């Protein structure tokens, strides 16, 4: 799917996450370039959302097979109001959780300059206000909305460090802003707000329990009608795919397997594992989310043919972690 790099391939610049680096990043975006930048969840591959050809460049750089709609990043709630109609419930969620790892899918506002390609022709727009100060500074310096899917090649696990970004995209994008590792480690939670009701389109860095509590209503699961295509079309069953087979909820380790461990207690057969990485020896789901994609990449990089994954509880951030692991384990 991804073509070999042409001889005139771009050089990817490394920019510091300081005023000077962010200014340079904003200038590249303003000129239609592609810049990977850190958010609190994962690194995003940014383009000016109002520039159709720049948005198209994202799909080319990632080797994405289809035009999935992209998340539009804005610096604050006031900027969000320019691109979507926020009802009182959406505004309430925005006030409480923005900046933060929550993406709201809302009806697009008439007159929003976001390109149709970024929205894949949908009448809705997914909006998010990232929590990192450097990310919002970049958005303010540019003064335009930025679309940013995770900064990895299509089908790969999301990038949580500049090294992961470059492993996938070096030479294919103009620059990466080096802000170190991203603290949350899994992507934002995506919730659709429809006529005062909430639907969870993707579990993520903000626990759904917190959203339900703040909203004072339940968050329904999944697409509106059974059998309907998933409403976050990027949520393909086999996504986040390492080359190794992934075995979930392993009760023991088979000889030669790599082990993605969780918690203080060793699994039976752990001494037979080729390599072991623990998401959180303390059994802390927040720490586990932050380590998830880096550990998956590292284990996959050992060349092990199978990765056993220890049981991980499903509450709080565990829901997002289990969701990503199920996709990594899906047959392909
Ligand atoms: O944490 C995050 O959300 C990261 C950082 C970089 O902000 N971004 C991210 O983007 O995960 P991406 O493109 O990898 O995932 C975006 C998801 C896809 O599943 C896409 O289908 C869904 O958002 N999406 C975007 N617009 C939508 C819309 N209007 N309706 C439903 N789903 C939408
Ligand atoms: Mg992604």
Side by side, the strands of the main sheet go 1-8-2-3-7-4-6-5-9-10-11
> What compounds sit in this structure?
threonylcarbamoyladenylate, magnesium ion
Q: Which percent range fits the helix content?
A: 25-40%
Distance N terminus to C terminus? 15 Å
Overall shape: globular
Which structural class is indicated by helix and strand composition? alpha/beta
Say how many strands there are: 15
* Radius of gyration using CA atoms only: 19 Å
Flag low-confidence runs: 225-231
Helix tally?
9
Residue fraction in strands: 15-25%
- Average the pLDDT over all residues and give the rounded result: 91
Task: Tell me what the structure shows.
This protein is an alpha/beta fold and 332 residues long. The chain has 9 helices and 15 strands. The chain has helices at 19-30, 52-62, 77-80, 88-97, 133-142, 162-169, 208-215, 285-301, 318-329; strands at 13-16, 35-38, 43-48, 71-73, 102-107, 124-128, 146-147, 175-178, 189-194, 197-202, 219-221, 245-247, 258-261, 275-278, 306-309. The strands form 2 sheets. Strands 1-8-2-3-7-4-6-5-9-10-11 form an 11-stranded mixed sheet, sandwiched between helices. Helix 1 (19-30) crosses helix 5 (133-142). Threonylcarbamoyladenylate (TXA) binds next to strand 5, strand 6 and strand 10.
Write the layout of secondary structure elements.
Blueprint: E1 13-16, H1 19-30, E2 35-38, E3 43-48, H2 52-62, E4 71-73, H3 77-80, H4 88-97, E5 102-107, E6 124-128, H5 133-142, E7 146-147, H6 162-169, E8 175-178, E9 189-194, E10 197-202, H7 208-215, E11 219-221, E12 245-247, E13 258-261, E14 275-278, H8 285-301, E15 306-309, H9 318-329
Parallel strand pairs: 1-8, 2-8, 4-6, 5-9, 10-11, 12-15, 13-14, 13-15
Antiparallel strand pairs: 2-3, 3-7, 4-7, 5-6, 9-10
Helix pairs in contact: 1-5
Bound molecules: threonylcarbamoyladenylate (TXA) and magnesium ion.
